Structures are given as C-alpha cells and as structure tokens.
Amino acid sequence: MSKLDYGYNIPALKGMKLEEIQTPCLLIDYETFKLNVEKMRSFTHENNIKLRPHAKMHKSVDVAKYQLQYGNASGICCQKLSEAEVFVRSGIKDILITNQITDLKKIDRLCKINRSGSKVTCCVDNIDNLNDINNIASDNNVKIEIFIELECGAQRCGTDNIDDIKLMIQFINKSSNIKLSGFQAYNGSNQHVLDSKERETTVNDTNKRISNLLKYFDMSNLIVTGGGTGCFEEETKSKIYNEIQVGSYAFMDAHYSSLKKNKSNILFENSLFIYTSVISVAKPNFAVVDAGLKSMSVDSGLPKIFNKNDLKYTKCSDEHGIIEDYNNSLKLNDKLKLIPGHCDPTCNLHDWYVVIDKNRKVKDLWKVSARGFSF
Q: pTM of the prediction?
C-alpha cells in the first residue's frame, strides 16, 4: 500500500472530478481563495500597512506560503509554540506567536528555535514572564523580540495598567537578551459585531483605549499589530496599526459572511466548504448527509448550504447531518457544499484541503500541516 492511498488517508487525487472526491472533506475553491488573497494584498499595499496573516485559521504550510508569495505578507502569526515550529520547519522564518509563553520548557524551546536562525517573537503581559524569557535566552545566547500585549476590551490576555507597561519597558531596556518590538493590540470581540454602525462604534472605543495607552511612549520604531477580518478596515482608519493579522479573510465562514457591511467595505467570498454526500433519503422531507460534528465546528452555529436556498442543515450528531428537504429533491450520493459557521476549528478537524479549479477538478491537495499542534 502506498504512503498516500486514495480513500484511505487522502480524499482525492490530482485531476479527479469533483464528484469522485471522498466525503466528508474540506474543499478550497481556488479561484475564490486567490481573489480573496488579492483583495487583501491590494488593501495593505494601498494603505502602506504590513500584513501578517494568522495561520491559526488554516494551519497549513501551503496556504501560508501562498500568502507570503502572492499576498503581500511579511510573515505569519501563530497561536501556539508547537504550531509555529511546524511552519519554521517548513522554511517560514518570521513568525509572531500572538500569545504568552510562560512554561519554562516552552521558553527554552522558543530560544532554541530562534538560535537556529528563525525569528519567532511572542507576547508578554507580565514582568515575571519577561524575567524568565531573558534568563533562558541568556542561557541559549540569543535575543528574543517581545510584543507587550495590551488589554483593549476583549478581557483576555494583556494589561491596561500603564505603570505595569512602563515597568516592563524599563526591564526590557536594561536586559541583554530581550528586545521590545512593539505592542499586540487585538480585540477579538469587535470582529463579530453584526451591525456595521455598532461595530464601528466598538472599534472606535477600542482605538481610543489603545491610543490612551500608547501616548506615553515613543512609537517611532515600534510595531502596533492587531486587527482582524471582521473590522480591519475600521481598525486601520485610526492609523494606530502599522501591521494587521487578519486570518479568516482567505477562507471566510458563515459567521463572517453574515456581518453587515458598508458599501465601501471589501467583500470576501466563501472559498472553504465541507463537501458532503447524501447517505439516506429513507423518510420524506429530509435527508441525511455524512458530515456531522467530527467534520465541522458548530460553536458559531450550524453550517449553511451553499447555493441551495430550499435546503437547510438543521441538526447534527457525530457523523450525521440532517437536511430539511421539503421538495424531496435530494437523492442518494448527491453532493452538497456546506459553509462552516467557524472556519478555524473546522480546519483543525481535517488532514487535507482538496483544492478545486475552475473546471471542477482537483488542482492540488494541501495538508493541514499543524493540525493538533496546540501545545
């Protein structure tokens, strides 16, 4: 048996027709994906802002390298150390871990990764963590670049205590093995506000909080990084950010697609789908498909059925999905494309993306390289 065996550990082969693909699996509509990447590339170029897309969304070396080559990306973001190491081992050398690394073993590993020639930075919000990083970096004879994380409304990591921020900067400046690169300022809750006017208001409030913290510091050589797919345009209007870390724009999902937009907003299209087959039509008015909880995340709601307004995905169990079909239009082995409610955790459930070209054939298979790398 070959290492990769169609139907066993890969859902498709290059050149296959769409109908031949094994389900359930993840599809990428290549033309739509490419257009989404081009739109963000144009935005960042026109606004003279760096793009560091978040790889926690797709967890794929292939996607990240595409964004770096064609999408105006200067580096990538990761959320965990092991996730970042997957990309480092693939040759991607400029990575920001948008999270705290506090475990001493992990700090040592971070230092060893940087000692190998990569630039992997991380966030801090605590002076004790800074002390640990500096000491372990000294033991490894490396200098680690640091982003101080600001608490700007999400009530997650970060600090909004100006005295603590000043103390951390003073500590960094007198330390030999850490260097301040800038500030992490990301408010994830703003990304999901449905109404455009309300979203703009919450972003403005966040921007004021950030400005009130940063006004005490000389920002001429520092990076302020943040922003997300839901409101990056509103966030960058403030001129606070000189780098954005959008992620979902490349794939989109049902939740992000539901956000109300202004006429001036860039519209990204769904390029990621869960491809699923009808496996039962035993009873009238509904059908059963083979994509359930083990194929998608439903934390942001059930999936939407792409281009099928007369059908509705109504509930799911581990390996089954129930489709309302009052016209009884579905037959055994019919295929549907589902738009996941939340792309990030959905991608982490699969090993492969099946990339589909404009002729409805398999262009390529991209591995979900960092699937499960969450430590």
A: 0.96
